[in-house]
Every structure is written in C-alpha cells, then in structure tokens.
Amino acid sequence: MGCIFCEIINRGQKGDIIFETKELVAFKDIHPKAPVHILVVPRQHIVSLVDTDASRREILGNLFSAAADIARMQGIAESGFKVVMNVGRGGGQIIDHLHVHVLGGWKEEDNRELP
Length: 115
Ligand code: AMP
Ligand code: ZN
Hints:
Blueprint: H1 4-9, E1 17-20, E2 24-28, E3 36-42, H2 57-73, E4 81-84, E5 100-104
The chain binds adenosine monophosphate and zinc ion.
C-alpha cells in the first residue's frame, strides 16, 4: 500500500508544503489541532521512532532543528509551542512514516488537545 506522506513528498499528492530541505519536508496538517499545526517529515520512508537507531541520529536531529526553524517562521517561537511525536498505534500514530507535529498559536482560552 502507498504511503500518503511519501506521495506528498514526491508531489504525487497535493500537500501544503511550507518548508523543505535536502532531508525533510514540512507541510500543514490536513486536520489542524492548533491554529498552527505543521508536520515535519524526513524524505526517507522510516516507519516510526522504533525503526531508528544511532545511525539515524542526524535525521532525528534535523527534525527537531527544523521544528525550531518552522516555529520561528510561523511566529510561535516567542509564545511557545509543542513538538509531539506519536510512536505506534498505542502511541496514537496513524500514519506510518516518521514525523513530528509542531503545534502552537493558541489563545489563552483555547483547548490544547494533542494530536
Ligand atoms: P499521527 O497520529 O502522529 O500519525 O498523525 C498523522 C497526522 O497526519 C494527523 O494529524 C492527520 O491529520 C495528518 N494527515 C493525514 N493525512 C494527511 C494529508 N494528506 N495531508 C496532511 N496531513 C495529513
Ligand atoms: Zn512514506
């Protein structure tokens, strides 16, 4: 079965891409759980954090530093934001392609339910 994130990365599927580098792509979550909700995804198809080891340190580091770049770019670095990674079905992971969620931009009264 095809991977929806690989399809977005390879432009086969429409995605709202806001940032990309040689190693990763960031796009808007289709069902945002926050005023700003961006997914940061390595170009390489890795299923989850459990499928990584020390040889993937660079990719994992890149995901987090891109999350900081995106937060600055989206104007939520000052106010603060959440970086969330769901791992496996029991951890709430629905899409089997490694990704982090960058969430922020809430107002005081907003519900802050995580993805
Ligand atoms: P997770 O539960 O961590 O696997 O999160 C997967 C996220 O991908 C969810 O927040 C979905 O709303 C989001 N999502 C699913 N399909 C798409 C898509 N085609 N474009 C953008 N985001 C998507
Ligand atoms: Zn994939």
